[in-house]
Design a protein that fits this description.
99 residues; mainly alpha
């Protein structure tokens, strides 16, 4: 059996199917290429937050033992911060920015 003979019998129908499949493949390739050109732009706030977080993680003054102990207290439900002391520290830091 000759393959070319069989394709010849399909005639225009076979040729249209081949072209249709080729067009579908080209469209899929274009869609895939378009998807690969996606870009993300972070806001200034997001970049600042990322930088601050990285610096905080690298800071040598972070006492891991203290952090671990506080996390354990919070998990147990026994953490009770001094709200007056917290408020005082917040005010001191805020006032330090203005003077």
């Amino acid at each position: 059996m000759e393959i070319t003979g069989m394709l010849g019998k399909l005639g225009l129908y076979g040729q249209n199917k081949v072209e249709e499949n080729r067009d579908k493949n080209q469209e899929a390739a274009k869609a895939e290429k378009a998807e690969s050109n996606d870009q993300v732009e972070l806001s200034t706030e997001a970049r600042t937050l990322h930088t601050a977080r990285a610096q905080a993680e690298e800071a040598s003054e972070v006492r891991q033992d203290k952090v671990r102990a506080l996390k354990e207290e919070i998990a147990r439900g026994s953490y009770s911060p001094d709200s007056e002391q917290t408020a005082q520290k917040l005010l001191e830091e805020e006032m330090g920015f203005w003077f």
